[in-house]
Design goal:
Blueprint lengths: L1 H8 L7 H16 L14 E5 L9 E5 L4 H9 L3 E3 L6 E3 L12 E5 L2 E5 L12 H8 L1 H4 L5 E5 L11 H7 E9 L10 H8 L4 E4 L13 H10 L13 E5 L5 E5 L4 E2 L1
Parallel strand pairs: 6-7, 7-8, 8-9
Antiparallel strand pairs: 1-2, 2-5, 3-4, 5-6, 9-12, 10-11
């Protein structure tokens, strides 16, 4: 939208606030008229990069964004509120709150090997958004994406980030899964781990989100902290780190710090 406004002014550095409001009023009028389903001003550019083998590289390398869908992108634009900046008469757009249904799920391919990175993508009741939009549009078939053998599990392994077709349409048989823990919500939980393991040959999580082990501090450090703040929450254990490497020959190796947990 910014680029459209810039072209409207024929100057990419011109003040575009007025034109942004003009575009928003057009979008609003289309929605009010009941033709929201016709409003798809943004067509997603799914491919981040696509480097095919050449004299400089013997391996095909591709990265593709599977989400957000055009419908999600369009809705996000319509939700941008316009508010005046502090101590300024000019109006500026402010960023809307976080929405995991608009998270960017990525397919990455290196030679014959590929990985699916689920980001924080959650399910939506709308078939045109989130995971459902991927399977409705079948973008993975249109772009000839191979099934992945590595899956970075979506949304810390929670149930609302799960879709059965992820494992049947996007992943190969018995893939390796990795996940980041989210301690405040104790994710992934025992049921989440069991569900993921039913679809994967192995699962590694950056830490045990359900551990009750208390991190022991030096007595002097503990005393100083209590003097500063009596009511505090201690984050148990260290955050883990998982590293995946693949060579030009397709050899995949993985490594994890001692805080990680294998299931």
């Amino acid at each position: 939208m910014f680029h459209l406004c810039a072209l409207y002014n024929k100057d990419i550095t011109a003040h575009t606030d007025k034109e942004i409001r003009e575009f928003k009023s057009i979008v609003d009028s289309i929605i009010v008229s009941g033709k929201k389903d016709k409003l798809i001003p943004v067509s997603a550019n799914y491919t981040f990069f696509d480097h095919r083998s050449s004299e400089h590289s013997s391996v095909d390398t591709r990265m593709v964004a599977l989400t957000p869908s055009p419908a999600s992108t369009t809705e996000a634009i319509t939700q941008f509120p316009i508010q005046p900046s502090q101590n300024s008469y000019r109006l500026r757009q402010t960023i809307i709150g976080k929405q995991n249904i608009n998270a960017v799920a990525i397919w990455f391919g290196f030679g014959n090997w590929s990985a699916l990175l689920g980001s924080d993508l959650e399910l939506s009741t709308d078939n045109n958004k989130s995971w459902k939009s991927i399977f409705k549009s079948q973008i993975y078939k249109k772009l000839s994406l191979s099934k992945s053998s590595l899956y970075k599990v979506a949304h810390h392994g929670s149930r609302n980030g799960h879709h059965d077709d992820i494992y049947t349409q996007l992943l190969s048989e018995n893939p390796i899964a990795i996940a980041t823990a989210y301690t405040p919500s104790k994710l992934p939980g025992k049921r989440d781990i069991h569900r993921i393991k039913n679809h994967c040959s192995a699962l590694t999580v950056t830490r045990d989100a359900n551990s009750n082990t208390k991190l022991k501090l030096d007595s002097m450090v503990e005393k100083e902290l209590k003097a500063i703040e009596k009511n505090r929450t201690v984050l148990n254990e260290k955050i883990g780190h998982i590293q995946i490497r693949i060579t030009d020959q397709g050899i995949v190796t993985s490594g994890a710090s001692e805080s990680c947990v294998d299931y």
